[in-house]
Amino acid sequence: MAEALVLTVPIFSTLCNEAFRLRRAVFITEQKVPPEEEFDQDDLTAHHLVAILDGEVCGTLRVIYADEHVKIGRVAVSAAARGHGIATLMLLHAMKDHGSARDNRFYLTAQTDKTGLYERFGFKAFGPEFLDGGMPHLAMKTY
Questions:
Q1: In what order do the strands lie in the sheet with 5-9?
Q2: pTM exceeding 0.90
Q3: For 47-72, what is the mean pLDDT?
Q4: In whole numbers, what is the pLDDT of the chain averaged over residues?
């Protein structure tokens, strides 16, 4: 696993802006998600996490408190940092810090080819596959 630092950062801080830059690079440029679907009003109230490796933001995700669960989303890791445990470190941090908010109930929608990552954290897929940002996704939650 990488020796990265994971921090919660305030919206529009320098580090959060770097996270938004990374999200644009991964989702809009690389995965061709329409820009109007990538950023939304939830970004204004979400808890934003960043992973920093060698002084650079290499990963990000956001945490949203919904009525019945904590929603994890917008998980992105830079191309250069993939395969080094960055997403795992961020998920561990997010679930540790935010689990008590909704009795340790978490929810997310995962790109179908990435469900194995979330299954390691106790997420189970439910419902039919659907398109989000033009890519197949599955809803997943912890029980």
A1: 5-9, 47-53, 56-65, 70-77, 106-111, 135-141, 124-132
A2: yes
A3: 97
A4: 95
